[in-house]
Design goal:
This protein has 10 helices and 6 strands, in the order E-H-H-E-E-H-H-E-H-H-E-E-H-H-H-H. By secondary structure, it is an alpha+beta fold. It has a 4-stranded antiparallel β-sheet with strand order 2-3-5-6, with no helix packed on it. It has a two-stranded antiparallel ribbon with strand order 1-4. Helix 2 runs antiparallel to helix 3, helix 3 packs antiparallel against helix 4 and helix 3 runs antiparallel to helix 10. The radius of gyration is 38 Å and the shape is elongated.
Length: about 450
Amino acid sequence: MKNFVIAISISAMMGVAPSLVVAESLVEAVRSAINTNPALDVATFETRASAYELLELKSEYQPRVSVFADLGAQRVDDPSSLSIEDNDETKFRREVGLRVDYMVFDGHRRANQVYSNAARLDANLYRLLDASETLSLNATEVYIDVVRHLRLKQAAEANLERHRQLAKRVRQQVDAGRLPVSDLLAAEDRVSASELVIIEVRRAGRDAEIRYKRIIGHERKGPVSISLAKKIPRSYEALLKAARENSYRIRVAGIEIERAEYERGIVNADVYPQVSLNAGARKGWDVDGVSGTEDDVFLGFRMDWELSRGGRLERDRALIERKNKAFYERRVAMLEVEELAAQTWNSYISNTERTRSLAGQLASNKSLLLQFDQEFEAGKRTLLDLLEAQRQTFDVEFLKVSAEAGLAFSTYRLLAAQSRLAQYFGVKPKGLALTPTFESRAKVAPTSVFQTTIPALD
């Protein structure tokens, strides 16, 4: 479908010389929202926290070193083992030592912990990217809405001026005796109605400016302008295919299926033997009632294997159901993404057709209004005919402004449905320098992910 272009520019600083006005583009507004809106900071800090929690697992692959010491009085009564001099004598025992433990095999618990946390980090990175898509779309919507209200205000002000001019002409003809006083009252009533429209339009415009400040992060700085987004899909099938392939939400749901399997591996690690390498050294003085010093050094393997424990079968079945839940959540996400793509395409087509139709209708109404005005001056049309033609023209112009804004927004929404809107604007979440490849890297070598450096926030 042909991509119609709408170019709209509204001056936001009335009465100021154009050379002093600095415009704020849609791209600049979106970038400001990405860099300043606290809603995105929430997802950013959650992502960074999950990155540090992944790096924390490095300790699971390192030996645990501990120092111990013992100090206190001890009295031992054991004549069969102690000499007469040492037996039943209170001694001041001292002991100090060093112990090193290293897990050799743990039933793949550590590996599954790394896989699970790496997958969680990937999911949070996609959630952060998805949050940036949502914020970019919200910023686009409020930006276009501000433009729409400014154009509506211009249309309403022009409509009021036309009615005032017509009322002035009617007054002159009433004074000249060519029109009844009732026509003047009718014209002045339309002036009052036009003033009420402006009051409402200005109120709605101020609300739009308030939303703009909340989402963009500052008040509008100058003129604003919009156009249709480029590089949009040419068919619904292309949109649906791209939405399925690129959707961050679907990717997150897929990762959660894998995470459920990793969590099962963590919990079921205790069905395997736990083997560790242990080493240490100890030195003691007057220990266990024996006068003098003693030294111990040890090195060896230790195995712990819990052969049976109740509830394991039920626990495993519960974990399988968790994975099934994640699988069907992905199905739900897929259906919702497909529904969003269909609705977005439908909105785009409808707004395109509506804009075309209203553009043609407005051109016809303007010609009809001009003709009625001429016929009114010639006495061939009544004032009510002319007033009705003015009303219809203004109503269609009002609808056309909103339709054009809706069409512009729907083109950007097409990009958002494919998780491509932030990329289109060339923006990314503040402080994001990590890529969601941690799970795949961990599956190659679990310890490889520990080489990651988490950059400081900008």
